[in-house]
Amino acid sequence: MTLRKSVILSLLAGTGLLTFIMAWVFNRFIYSSNAAAELKYLESSMEQIIHSVELNEKREADMYEMFEADYLNRANIAANLYSRGKSDGIDWNDMLNILEVEEVNIVDEYGTIVESSNPDSIGINFYEKEQFAEFLPLIEGRIGQESHIQMERLSDERGDRKIYVGVRRLDAPKGMIQLEVSSEALEQYESLVSLKNLLKSIPTERYRFLFALEQKTKKLLALSENNDLQTEYSLELILDMEEGEERTGTYIYDTTGKKWLAVLVCRKGIIYGYASDMAGLQGRVRESFIRGMASVLILSVFVLFFVYWLLGYTVLSDLETITQKMTRFINGAETVYFREGKNREIKELSQDLNKLVSVIETKQKRLCTLANMFDEGVAAYEYYADLNQIFCSDNLISLVGLSEEEVHQKIRSDYEKAKMKREVWEDGLYEEDRYQAQSGRTLMVHRTCFQNASYGFVQDITKDMKAIHKLHTKLSEEISRNITDSLTGLYNRKKLEEEVRQIFQEEKPQGMLILIDLDNFKRINDEAGHMEGDNVLKKFGRILNRQFRSTDIKVRLGGDEFVILLRQELSVEVLQKKLNQFLDEVRTELQKYYTDYKLSVSIGVASVSQDVRSYEDLYKNADAAMYVAKRSGKDRFYVNSDIPKKE
Question: Is the pTM above the cut of 0.85?
Answer without folding.
Answer: no
